[in-house]
Structures are given as structure tokens and as C-alpha cells.
Amino acid sequence: MRFIWPLDSHVISRDFYYRGSIYIGGQHMAIDLPATSGTPIKAVAAGKVVAAGFSDINGNYVDIGHDAGWRTKYRHLMEPANVYMGAAVSQGQVIGKVGSTGWSTGPHLHFDLWNASRQSSEAVYKAGVWAHDPVLYLGLEEEEMVTEERIRELLEATIRHSNQQFADEVNHLIRQSHINRDRRQAELEYKLRKHEEAGEGAASEARMRTIAREEDNRLEVTKR
């Protein structure tokens, strides 16, 4: 499911993690979107109105139930919502206007995103449901949403990348080891040729292999 932003403006005055004693549990668990009074509020996804009314805290509000256990709540509306209990709403449909009713210090939309089950690690359990940070879901395509499945996919991709990076480093070391070995072999052959040219005694091919093997053995001992 894809959620659009409820307002055209995406400015946030208080985020999901804002803490204050006026909130149950001490955490905001929603986002506040400041806007001019009367600014249209849109349903973030298609669904059905499951609650609408007025309360001292929320002011005018409307709750919409969506597929996959999601539920959104729009609070402090300027006037009663444009939709009624049980009404079907479409994504982007105007359901009310920004106001400052209830416990509010200025015109803004207090927007909540809830789900019956925990969809991501930042979710907070409250009154039988899970509050989720709307910023992680609004305006994103479904495959971009930060769900537990998405987190696992990102983790697996990170592990794959780390493993590939490790394998690349090992292969580089192996290639470097082969280069060093070939360089040592070339140096030995050069020294043997110089000895022969200087008349310091001929070195047989067997002797050359023996010397090279001894050099390799010394290198292995040094590595350990």
C-alpha cells in the first residue's frame, strides 16, 4: 500500500519521537504539520471512515481504516470532517480542513499512523495497536517502505556486499602473492645467469628449482 502526504506541504513542527509530559507515554507518536487555517486535508490512502467527531483533546477529528491493518487519524480540524462514519474514501480525497480545535496552540494537522501489528522497529505499542513513524511511509512507493521485511532485505544486501568486498580483498592478496612469487623467481633466474656469465660456476636447472623452493619455504615461515 502506498500513502501520499495529507498536506501539500511536508514541513514538520513536531516529529514522531518528540517527547513531552502532555503525551500519554511521554512520546508524541505522530507528526504535526503546520499550515494555514482552512488548508485542505487529503486522505493518504483509500479506506473507510471508522470514527469521526469531536473531543476536548483531539478537537474535530476523523479516523480512516485501510487495507493490511493500517489506520490513520487526522486531528484538530477546523470544522467537522467532510465525511461520515462508514463512508468510503479514495486516496487524495479532501476530508477536512486544517484548524486548531482541541488541545492545540496553533493551526496544524496532527497526523497518526497505526497498525494492528508491528511493521517496523521504531513502532510503539499503545492501547492494543502500534504507532508508526509516518515519515517512513508517506510519499514512498510500497517497495521503499521501511517494513521488517524491507529491513531484512537491506541487511542481507549489506551482508552480500560485505562478503563480496571481503572476497575481492582476498583475491587481490592472492594476485599480489602470485606477482611477488613471479618477481622472486625472475630475480633468482637473473642472479643465476649473472653467476654463470661471471664464471662463478654453472647452476643446473635442478639447482635453480631447489633455490626457488627454498626461497618459497622461507617466505611461508615468515608469513606465519
Automatic annotation (TrEMBL):
Basic and acidic residues: which segments have biased composition? 206-224
| Alphabetized SUPFAM superfamilies for the sequence | Duplicated hybrid motif
Which Gene3D superfamilies does the annotation name? Glucose Permease (Domain IIA) (2.70.70.10)
Q: Where is this region: Disordered?
A: 195-224
CDD domains recorded: M23_peptidase (cd12797)
Matching Pfam families: Peptidase_M23 (PF01551)
Q: Name one GO molecular function term.
A: metalloendopeptidase activity
Instruction: Specify the M23ase beta-sheet core domain's residue ranges.
Output: 27-118
Mind telling me what this protein is named?
M23ase beta-sheet core domain-containing protein
